[in-house]
Design a protein that fits this description.
mainly alpha; DNA-binding; homodimer; 3 strands; 3-stranded antiparallel β-sheet; globular
DNA sequence: GTAATTTTGTTGTAAATACAACAAAAATGT
DNA sequence: ACATTTTTGTTGTATTTACAACAAAATTAC
């Protein structure tokens, strides 16, 4: 069976590396763009869900988000019904940078899919979605301390 | 155009996270498995090339490799013709863990491709290779300090 | 042949990442 | 209704990661 994991790892590290360098311009340090983009697209999302979407440790997300708040890119708001959760919203400052983050992502996407037909782009997208769904369960399980058998 | 970058990022972080947890058993800390696997498969490779293959910063690779050496998983050997480079080789200890790392990778790959036909697995592999080649140039360029226009 | 550039490797420093452990609110079970 | 478990968030600590700056060998340019 073909080893797709390494290709995925290489691509992910390369693109993440590029983004981190490019977003320094907006005073965003390593990883922060991941959270900010999602908060802009899902205003009101809570930290725990965000960590789950991004696939990063809860405590890592907590600190990244705290920093975004201190820097004024986002704000935490208490929920009326649930005293435990804190909903996350972009501030004006956050919304102002969002278009640049989006543009950069679109550019990288275009570079990544250079030479792809519409049909091929469609295909890889759907296949990747299936892969992602396939591994989500293992990730959650292993994070909780369960062991995989193999 | 479909956003494949996020899917790739999610998959990569999830699988890396799983691997890091599972390889603690062998006293491998975060990221180390990446280097060790490649050194086992490309004995004699030098640090600089390894960083390029993995797509990680040169100095990050340097420290990860130094630690692998201290722990006795690999060894650095001087080259006779070139006094600058140091070739990397797995030690017996390194070669002993390699099969476990390989097995884990194969398992994750299998999980990732669950429900895929042989043809589909083949397809995603080739499409991913093309993506990887597409972005390699940008990565090297941006790492060297060049700016992308978009 | 030698000057300029590139390659390869290292170290100082700052920051992100993740594990462990804790706390409190909420949801669930009985 | 209350006890138990799960969810959500935080903080202490150790480690990885990466940028900047440096050094030395090798390669390239002239």
């Amino acid at each position: 069976m073909k080893d797709i994991l390494r290709e995925i790892g290489m691509i992910a590290r390369a693109l993440d590396s590029i983004s981190n360098i490019e977003f320094k311009e907006f005073d965003l340090t390593k990883g922060q763009y991941l959270y900010l983009v999602r908060i802009c697209e899902h205003p009101g999302i809570i930290q725990e869900k965000l960590a789950g979407i991004i696939k990063v440790d809860r405590t890592t997300a907590a600190r990244a988000i705290k920093k975004l708040e201190i820097q004024g890119f986002i704000e935490k708001r208490d929920d009326e019904d649930n005293k435990k959760i804190k909903k996350l919203y972009p501030t004006q400052k956050g919304m102002q940078v969002y278009p640049f983050l989006k543009r950069e992502g679109e550019h990288s996407n275009k570079v990544a899919l250079d030479g792809f037909s519409e049909q091929e782009a469609e295909t890889i997208f759907h296949l990747l979605q299936r892969v992602r769904k396939n591994i989500e369960g293992d990730w959650e399980s292993v994070k909780k301390g369960n062991k995989r058998d193999y």
